[in-house]
Design goal:
One of its GO terms (biological process) is cell-matrix adhesion. InterPro entries: Ig-like_dom, Ig-like_dom_sf, Ig-like_fold, Ig_sub, Ig_sub2, Ig_V-set, JAM-C. Its main location: other. The chain is α+β, with helices and mostly antiparallel strands and 310 residues long. Helices cover 24% and strands 33% of the residues. The chain has a 6-stranded mixed sheet, with no helix packed on it. Strands 13, 15, 16, 19, 20 and 21 form a 6-stranded mixed sheet that branches. A 4-stranded antiparallel sheet has the order 12-14-18-17, with no helix packed on it. The structure holds 2-acetamido-2-deoxy-beta-D-glucopyranose (2 copies). The site of one 2-acetamido-2-deoxy-beta-D-glucopyranose has 4 residues, from loops. One 2-acetamido-2-deoxy-beta-D-glucopyranose is lined by residues 189, 191-192, 212.
């Protein structure tokens, strides 16, 4: 190995023997070397950020400086040929020769930015440094879905989600303005309830709703930079009256039997055949009979139950 090869090799950078270090000292100052005060800046959307790239050492008077934006497989120039490029023209500038300042970042700016410096007069003619920029975005008001009415004892799922926030939002639910724990079992105050709240997905699942679960619900999406709330919605819990349902079914059965009997009797007595030409008494005996039965029942209650049965 020649002295140059030793000094240019990666092993020198990673720490090597004292003898190598001694040999290389004269060469070290000839290499262009970059550093950064912050390789992972985090900034909120619409704020200013400095992507720090500092030339620690060089012997070249006018090193060539370039900045590239790297997002997945996409590589674009941000600073090239001594000029800011693309959509950065209006909102970025170079600071202290090598650092890049973005004056108004957007969420689209989240990417890796590479500062590349070429110094032809140096022994090691180039160096580069990568800066990982993260742009944080406040959550927007989440979309919440709360079932309007659920019968006692049934399961119910409440949804809450928003897609703008970065980092991704976590979710909390409130019942009559009181925050809910992630598990109803964890707090004796909620011992009459049975729910699990998933803060990551925003779903609140009741295994079996109780009367006490009725009320107003809303959800809040939160991340490192902000929070947003959805409109409060009412969830109603109603009794499922088994006796009422059976009663309702019986009434329907009785009505059907009576209609059938009515038709049979009419048929046997010859009403059907004889009066067919007139087309009159065929309708009259059966139908009003059935209608009367339904109307004598407590109307609202009956409809409710029968629709549920169906
Ligand atoms: C930053 O950019 C956004 C849109 O990209 C714009 O609405 C806002 O006014 C800008 N803010 C400043 C301070 O220039
Ligand atoms: C739970 O239900 C019982 C009986 O219905 C009631 O007496 C009690 O106050 C309820 N507890 C809570 C914490 O709501």
């Amino acid at each position: 190995l020649t002295r140059e090869q030793v000094c240019n090799s990666r092993s020198y950078e990673l720490g090597c023997s004292y003898s190598r270090l001694f040999i290389c000292i004269g060469y070290r100052i000839l290499a262009v070397e970059l550093t950064s005060s912050n390789k992972k800046p985090v900034v909120q959307e619409f704020q200013r950020v400095e992507l720090s790239c500092i030339i620690k050492s060089t012997t070249t008077a006018n090193p060539r400086i370039e900045w590239k934006k790297i997002k997945g497989d996409d590589k674009t120039y941000v600073f090239f040929d001594n000029k800011i490029q693309g959509d950065f023209v209006t909102r970025a500038e170079i600071l202290s020769r090598t650092s890049l300042v973005i004056k108004n970042v957007t969420r689209m700016d989240t990417a890796t930015y590479r500062c590349e410096v070429a110094a032809p007069d140096d022994e090691n003619i180039a160096d580069e440094i990568s800066i990982q920029l993260t742009v944080q975005v406040k959550p927007v008001a989440p979309r919440c879905r709360v079932p309007k009415a659920v019968p006692v004892g049934k399961t119910a799922t409440l949804h809450c989600h928003e897609n703008e926030g970065y980092p991704e939002s976590t979710y909390s639910w409130y019942h009559n303005s009181e925050p809910l724990p992630t598990d109803s079992k964890s707090n004796p105050k909620f011992r009459n309830s049975s729910f699990i709240l998933n803060p990551g997905t925003g779903t609140l699942v009741f295994a079996a709703v109780q009367k006490g679960d009725a009320g107003r619900y809303y959800c809040i999406a939160t991340n490192d930079v902000g929070s947003a709330k959805c409109e409060e919605q009412e969830m109603e819990i109603y009794d499922l009256n088994i006796g009422g349902i059976i009663g309702g079914v019986l009434v329907v059965v009785v009505v059907l039997v009576l209609i059938t009997l009515g038709i049979c009797c009419a048929y046997r007595r010859g009403y059907f055949v004889n009066n067919k030409q007139t087309g009159k008494s065929y309708k009259t005996p059966a139908k009003p009979d059935g209608v009367n039965y339904i109307q004598t029942d407590d109307e609202g209650d009956f409809r409710h139950k029968s629709s549920f049965v169906i």
